[in-house]
Amino acid sequence: MPIQIDDIYYSYMKKTPLVHEALRGVSLEINDGEFIGLIGRTGSGKSTLIQHFNGLLKPDSGRIVVDGINTASGSLRELRRKVGLIFQFPEYQLFEETVFKDIAYGISKRGYGEAETRERVYRAAEAVGISGALMQRSPFELSGGQRRRVAIAGVLVMEPKYLVMDEPGSGLDPEGREEIFSYVSKLHEDAGVCVILVSHNMEDVARLARRVIVIEEGRIIMDGPPETVFTRIEDLEQSGLRAPETQYLMKRLKTVVPEINEGAITVRQAADEIEKWLLAAGCNPAGGADIPATVGADIPVPAGADIPAAADAEIPVPADADIPATVGAEMPVPACAEIPVPTVTSVDTTGGGICT
Ligand code: ADP
Ligand code: MG
C-alpha cells in the first residue's frame, strides 16, 4: 500500500507570536517502489514534510497514512519499522561503543537471537561497504564517510519498506557520495525499497530519481518525471533552484544546432544526444574515416550566438570559410565534412571542443 498524504498543514511554535506555518495543504500519493527526489530551497518545508512520514511530526490538520497506518493514531513502532528516516548528518546520532552495537540498536528489541542479529547487522554493514574488521571499533575512530555509512546501516538493518533520506550526501567527498548513492540505488533496484531523497544537488536527483517533487513555502508546486520538471528552468529559478547544469549546456547548443533535442538532463543523456548529432553531421567517432562530403548541409546560426573568432576556434576553420569575427546573423557553419575533421575520439561535455 502506498503513502497517502491528504491536505496536511503543520505549524511550528503554535500559539505563540512566532508561529510559522511550514506546510500549507500538502497532498501526495507515493507508490511502493518509487524513487522520488524532493527538492526546494532552504526553508521550503522538505525536512518538515519527511518527518511526517514516520510520525516524528503529526499534522495539525489533514492526515497521512503509511502502508495502512495513520501516523496520528496508529502504532509508531510499526510505522518506524516501515519507514527508515536518515537525517542530515546522521553520524551525529551514533552513540554506542562499537560499530556493531550501533548498527544493531534498531533491531535490539525485536527478539532476534544472537546469530540472527549478527547476520542482519553484517548484511546491513556490507550493503554500505562497512567491513567486518570495523565491527568492534568505536564509531568515533572512523572517518566521516565511514561514520555516515554506519549510521545508514543502522537504518537499513531495520529493512524499511520506505527509505527517506535528508541530504545524505552533504559534506561527503564525491567518492563517498557516489558510494552511498550506488548502495541506495542497488537497494531500490534489488529489494524494491521506495526511496525518497531530499537533495540540493540537481545532478544527483536528475540521474537517480524517477519522479521529482518541488516544494515551495510549504506547498507542492511541481510533481513529475525529471525530464519534465528539470526542463522548466525558469520555474525552477523562480523557486530559488537551478536545473541540472546539463540543461544550460543543451539550451545553449540548441541556439546553434536547432535540430538537437535539448531535453537531456544528465551528462550521459547529453553526451548521447551530442554524439548522435555529430554522427548525423558527418563526424565519425569510430575513427573519422569515410566522411561523406554531402552530409550535414548548412546549419543556420541564430543572431547573437557566441561564435569565437577563427583564431580561438576549437574547430579548425578552413581559410575560405566565410565566418566574420564579429557575431552576425544567419551564418552558415561549415559542415563537419567540409572542414579537415580530426579523428573524433570522445565527446567532451565539460566545456571542451566538440571534435577533438
Ligand atoms: P527545509 O528542510 O526545506 O530547509 P524546513 O522544513 O526545515 O525546511 O523548515 C520549513 C520552515 O519551518 C522554515 O521556515 C524553518 O525556519 C521553519 N522551522 C523548521 N524547524 C523549525 C523549528 N524547530 N522551530 C521553528 N521553526 C522551524
Ligand atoms: Mg531541511
Question: How is this structure best described in words?
Answer:
With 356 residues, the chain is of the alpha/beta class. It folds into 2 domains: 3-243, Rossmann fold, CATH 3.40.50.300; 247-338, no CATH class. It contains 11 helices and 12 strands. It has helices spanning 46-51, 76-82, 99-104, 114-127, 144-156, 174-191, 202-208, 226-229, 233-238, 245-256, 267-280; strands at residues 3-12, 20-30, 35-39, 61-66, 69-70, 83-86, 162-166, 194-198, 211-216, 219-224, 299-301, 331-333. The strands form 3 sheets. The chain has a 6-stranded mixed sheet. Helix 6 links the parallel strand 7 and strand 8. Helix 4 (114-127) packs across helix 5. It is globular. The model is unreliable at 289-356 (pLDDT under 50). Magnesium ion binds next to helix 1. Residues 46-47, 166 line the site of magnesium ion.
**Number of E strands:** 12
Output the structural class: alpha/beta
The CATH superfamily of the largest domain turns out to be: P-loop containing nucleotide triphosphate hydrolases
Strand order of the largest sheet: 6-7-8-3-9-10
| Structural domain tally | 2
> CATH topology of the largest domain, what is it called?
Rossmann fold
Estimate the mean pLDDT confidence.
84
